[in-house]
Amino acid sequence: MIKANKDNFLKESGKALEEIYEMLQSLKSISLEELQKERTVLIMVDLINGFTREGALKSPRVERILPSAAKLQSACLLKGFPILAFADSHSMTSPEFASYPPHCLTGTSEEEIAEELQQVGGYQLIRKNSTNGFLEEAFSRWLKENDRIDTFLIVGDCTDICIQQFAETLKTWFNKENKESRIIVPMDLVETYELGMHNGNLVHVMALYNMTINGVEVVQSVEVQ
């Protein structure tokens, strides 16, 4: 239970949100050119039909970032960066459906990568059966086999769920291993959905804030030539 007077809570929270908003607005962009080919990977999270164009969790907010995500994907491909694409893929018995409506069922078009990204290509597909792609065995193998990679450029959705969980878990894993890392999340290339109490703008901002205070490098954008 919230141990605070409602009016005081809303007043204090409003002030904090204003400070968080202004802090995020003050963050800088980075250039793709500053990232080293042998140390950098692009991670595209759940930019699939089931979160963009069809199904119970489709969102026009997420769909809007597809063209810019494809542009960054093309630039990374030209620079020779490896690219991983996570895609939700569930059976009807998934325990996750106790928290979310059924979505991205295995064998349906919902689990497929969005057409814009398919056209660019050049990615390794990793299907995932939870919100946190870090837990997938295929990613663990990739991480072990590519131990020179320490810079992760993460785009996709949802900011407050799959993006935040993956980025923070990845950062804390590197911390546990006593290894320096850059876990980069560009604000203009992550999004979340709007549904009932799940206010898209609010949870998006709070997720970005939580990532910044946990060592994730949140930036305005990644500039490409």
TrEMBL record:
Family matches, as PANTHER family: OS02G0606800 PROTEIN, PTHR47297
Domain Isochorismatase-like: 40-204
GO MF terms held by the record: nicotinamidase activity
GO biological process, any: pyridine nucleotide salvage
Pfam family, any one: Isochorismatase
Protein name: Nicotinamidase-related amidase
